Amino acid sequence: MPLVKNGTSATDTFVHVPDGAELPGDGAVLISVARFLDDPEALSRREGKLGVIWPNGRDVDDLVPFLDRLAVIALVFPTFRDGRAYSQARLLRERHGYDGELRATGQVLRDQFVFMLRAGFDAFEVKKESDAEAFAMTSKRYSVFYQPTGDGRITALHRRMQQRHSESAG
User: Fold this and answer.
1) Which of 53, 116, 131 is nearest to 83 (CA)?
2) How confident is the model at residue 151 (pLDDT cuts 50, 70, 90)?
């Protein structure tokens, strides 16, 4: 499945390891929430980066004690109509200060890409390479936003205030 990061197609360095399959001794792995919560301490001690696939029906507060151990949190969009992963992303970024990779997985659609970026996602699993190319173009389309969100960009209002302040100081 193609991966989009930083507005371009990227190689996924994380291996998706199904439940019951043996984990490689090292290297980056992405595992289910059930497998992770079964023994987070042992998983945190293994060599290599660790990522977890977090379903949108589960409270992110259960994940908070482990945020510093996770390089990737993959939030699931089971259908394009189900937006709970947007809320999860904003909570992780804004309330809990998670600064690792937030990956959108599942029904990741072209027309929702900008909204996902604004919610704090920075990586996207897409179905086909043409979607990856479209997402890359979309990420560059907008540079100014009015609403504050978890992606760290300043709003149009803040830009204007900064400009007025610098003009009055100079």
Assistant:
1) 116
2) low
